[in-house]
Amino acid sequence: MNWYEDPNVGNEIFVAARIRLTRNLRDYAFPNKLSNDDAEELIAKLRDKMDGWKTPTGETWSFLRLDRMSALQKNALREHRVINETLSQRVRPSGLYMSADEGVSVALMGDDHIRIQVLSPEVTLDRLWNICTKIDDAINEHFNYAFHDRYGYLTAFPTNMGTGLRVSVILHLPYLSASPQFHKLVNEVARFGVGVRNAFGEGEEKAGRLFEVYNQNTLGVSEEEIVALVYRLASHLAVNEKQAREQRYTPVMREDEAAKAYGRLKYARLLSVRDAMASLSSLRAGLGEELITLSGPLNVFGLMVNCCPAALALKTMNYNTDNLGADRAEFVRAMLPELL
Amino acid sequence: MLCEKCRAREAVVKLIALENGQKVEHNFCAECVQEMGMEAMNIMMDQMMDESNPIGKLVAEMMGTMNLNSEQAPKAPEELKNIICPKCGTSYKEFVEASRFGCATCYDIFGPLMNENVKNVQAGDRHTGKHPAYGWLNSDVPAQAGGAPAKALTPKEEIRLLENQLADAVAVEDFESAAKYRDQIRFLKNMEAGVTDLEFFPEGEEAAGTEPGTEGTAPGAEEDLL
Ligand SMILES: [Zn+2]
Ligand SMILES: [Zn+2]
User: Fold this and answer.
1) Which of B88, B124, B135 lies at the smallest CB-CB distance from A145?
2) d(CA B143, ligand 2 centre) in Å
3) Does residue A107 sit at the B interface (CB-CB below 8 Å)?
4) 8 A C-beta contact, residue A56 and residue A135
5) For residue B80, how many C-alpha atoms fall within 13 Å in the half-sphere facing its CB?
6) Is the pTM of this model over 0.90?
7) Per-domain residue ranges for chain A?
8) pLDDT for position A146
9) Options 3.40.630.120, 3.30.930.10, 3.30.2350.10, 3.30.590.10; which CATH number does A1-162 get?
């Protein structure tokens, strides 16, 4: 079971958290300027130390060669948020350490030599930062990092230099994002150096109304300051979501919205990504507020992740893309408990 | 201020976008922003977030504003265009266009050109967070008076530093220094393991390096480390 599929996780406004740490080794050019031979050598050196490690949470991890994986597998990993766009398209030597639940990973030879990432349905940022920094220290015991007294950890992009840290919290903001104040609020938040974006990009997935709140600055702020800042502004948005839904809709209207969404998911025979995301979002809001009750636990976020095209194809083992709409409807139907 | 789209209602939302390396300010009313939807907003946000497409042309902006500041721009633009990182071959043009460093040395080459402008796109112009426990001494960390490193070393850090120096010495076939580093590493490792007697060191070497009043310490170990 992957980290986002835990059925006992609730459907609150706080959905999940992600912490990513970027590092480069001192004595090698960054991946874009690295020859394939040097990249292979560097991967071999890192593997020599890291293969037998356990994660700081005590899990084992396995090593995958990204450049030898199918495009479908890599796209699914991107949809699961384990790897980014660059890594999903890498055909040059690149690798990935990943725990069985995909929650802890270290990618090698993406935009930077090393990309440490922790994903969790529990938004306990201090704990996640701790896991990242421990992996960071363990690697550093064997390898010299590219570090500069003024610019901190040196990264391929100036947007990561300094701490190399990106902290993000995924929020479910169905009512706030539809309200006229949302854009103003996003601007306010940006003044603190915190950005808000669609958590699943600009495609049909954005109908899920999941937003990622993240630090924009990496230089001139410490790791602890970044963690505290992102949490504070994510909390601010969560409070505004509660206000937005109560100010604009009565409880009956909100219950109605969630129940209708359940009906669409339960009886649809074809579900596009947009349909699935929009209805799952409404259902999630109703469950989070406990306006509707199901006969069993349901992790709606996990269902949303698995409704993305590559993830769904892998999950249902059906690779005929013509049938994805029908497969998605069937998959969602099978996962839904009864509405009480 | 009136909304620049409808030119009818009061603008309440200010958007700052990077266009062609310039910070451009847009002002819209709530209705027009709503009409444009999250799309416009998110595309802008996306440019700032996506690691593969960082902050539009961030570096271009850093460099662009630099030229206005004549006393801080010691070189003419024409000369800048010829700069190439000696380690990875990244050219000035490539660096500005891709907003991307090619290696650690690029920071030494192109970093000074960014100057104060880093502050415009980051929270500050100096790293204030975590430092690596190992291996950062060989970068340009300012030394304190007397040449001591700015930060006290733990035995583990000293061992790492010496191992680097040992590798460097072996690489240039300086076996005399290599032997010295090797012995220092052994000494520190023993110290870490709680071995305090020094019979580990070859007798002759110990005798030769021991001066009156320094009995019982390893030959020159500590002095050399600083
Ligand atoms: Zn307008
Ligand atoms: Zn370079």
Assistant:
1) B135
2) 25
3) no
4) yes
5) 19
6) no
7) 1-162, 251-335
8) 95
9) 3.30.590.10
